[in-house]
Amino acid sequence: MPYPVRAIRTDRFKYIRYLNHKTGQPKRNALVLPEEEFFDLSKDPNEQNNLAETDAHVNARHNLSKRLNEWMIEMNDKGIESELDSLRRYPRKNEARKGSQ
pTM of the full predicted structure? Predict the structure, then answer.
């Protein structure tokens, strides 16, 4: 199962959306991440303090979330469905070899 991530940032803020957040992140020992992360890069350049669940900068977070939604629509990005379609069209080398054996 893919683990799609979408993100958008400005000079000050970074907004991250994990589209399959209920599934453990495969490259991080199945760590389950929140649906959203939001960082104030001016105060937290190492992205250690997730502000997504707080009232801090709520307008900026909503604005970036909206812009990400608009971008996904513009790009015809259907999230997990788009990721699965890409995996079918461009299988990894190991998976392609399995199918030919």
Answer: 0.77
